[in-house]
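BUG: 3D viewer hangs when loading the predicted structure for this chain

Environment: internal workstation, default settings.
Expected: structure renders.
Actual: progress bar stalls at 90%.

Input used:
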Amino acid sequence: MRATFRYCYCRLVVALLVSGVPLVLAFVPTGGASTAYGADKTVDVRRVNDGDTITLTDGRLVRYIGVDTPEIDYKKRRAEPLAYEARDFNRRLLHGGKVRLEFDSQTRDRYGRTLAYVFLPDGTFVNAEILRQGYGFFLPTGKNRRYRKVLLASQREAMSAGRGIWRNWREVGKGYIGNRRSMRLHLKSCPRAAGISRSNRVYFKTSWDAFWKGYAPARGCMKPNRHK
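Structure tokens produced before the viewer hung:
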């Protein structure tokens, strides 16, 4: 039966090629997660909350996987540098109001937000574009790894070009310790750094070197050095 199918399929392909009919080959990703969660479905955006979060018309709050943009002001917390520029850039990207979502192993964070890779109808990878323009840090997570290389490469492009947060970069401390397991970066003087096991410790002279390798600032221990 399989042999017959292959024979018929081959004859069909040859016939199409001979007749001049364009032949389109579709490659289906082997990961399975994107198709399992209906990644091809287009959804509508109600609001752009900030540089890495949007609200859909169905009420879902979507957090971009692998991206950490500066925080806007909230209650008594002052906005971080470039926070509103990041939000405005996100708004410009999503001006059409329609996006396609892809999911990975972890689909929700501890706040109940939907975690997703976001694409525009024209194929633009929103998560990567925000990093490529320097509006945020690459934020690696343990389970969601599908586009890790793409996202890190986008950050490196922004670093090399000195865009956004990477413009006029200066170090905030002397000596840094990274956690190889969580991929978070701590100031060497931070008490939390002492709790990192020796097997997971990685030492860096500069935070720039750590960010180039994909580490992200540990909140509560190292305040990111973001510049206008």
